[in-house]
Amino acid sequence: GKVLGPKGLMPNPKLGSVTNDVKKAIIGISGGIDSALTTCIAVNALGKENVIGVAMPSVFSSNHSVSDARILASNLKINFKVIPIQDINKIFLDELSVVFDETEPGLAEENLQARIRGSILMSIANKKNALVLSTSNKTELALGYCTLYGDMCGSLAVINDLNKSQVYSLSNWINGNSNYEIIPSGTLTKPPSAELRHNQTDPFDYEVVSPLVDSIIDESIYFDKSIKSSYDPSLVSDMILMVKNSEYKRKQAAPGIRISKKAFGIGRRFPIVNRYNKCQK
Predict the structure, then answer these.
(1) How many CA atoms within 13 Å lie on the side-chain side of 269?
(2) pTM score, two decimals?
(3) CB distance 27 to 45 below 8 Å
(4) pLDDT higher than 70, residue 114
(5) Residue 133, SS3?
(6) What is the C-alpha to C-alpha distance for residues 253 and 170, in angstroms, rounded to an integer?
(7) Beta carbons within 8 Å of 248's beta carbon, 6+ residues apart
(8) What are the pLDDT digits (tens) for 208-234?
(9) Number of other residues whose CB lies within 10 A of the CB of residue 172
(10) Which of 65, 64, 47, 46 is nearest to 55 (CA)?
(11) In Å, how far are 26, 38, 118, 141, 148 from 108, measured between CA atoms?
């Protein structure tokens, strides 16, 4: 079915439920591009009355993140809630102080926020008889730039076979083929960030990294030398290592929707033990 109708996003009854005859979806809307696109697809598939968006700002969330999430929800006319996590996070950190004291704040504290959000979404899903849709894209899953039991939690990974560049392209297409701007311009133009610490932005140039990672995944152990020569050798080595080292995360990721010739899932199997290194050749 078509993604868009003459008046913008329209539900497609042929798509039915997400899975297991559950017809409602819960999405954590961060104000970022990935959650925005996931929400648009969910509304198209299920109808606006069956999608709940939840913004969960922390002390590191920018004002525009919440406002962009609110604008998206308003444009799509979905049920939208804001549940701040600052106090919840503080309680966790207070209780964890017996372990965390005398250590420098770092990855553990950052990922705790993502896992609090995952727990909130799963709790709402249980209460509403709905499924959580995870929002990680293919580039993030490939490189492990996602948090186990945090933003990776969910029953279906809607955009896990779209790389970051494709996420932007499809989002712009949705806006360009609608009678009104659905995804806020701020979401499309601001630097992508997990907002788990102050002034954080994603550590990748996605215009370079997205096609490189796709080539690594598609070519696998037969990664062609001519492809390697198109990129900085150290970048290629770093990306291959990140893809290899993140396999254990992908084994625990939600199932996704395959649209390419080489998606993550049961069709792509690599060991996660014994220092498996063949993909580095």
Answers:
(1) 2
(2) 0.86
(3) no
(4) yes
(5) strand
(6) 23
(7) 272
(8) 999 999 888 876 544 566 566 678 888
(9) 13
(10) 65
(11) 26, 27, 15, 19, 12
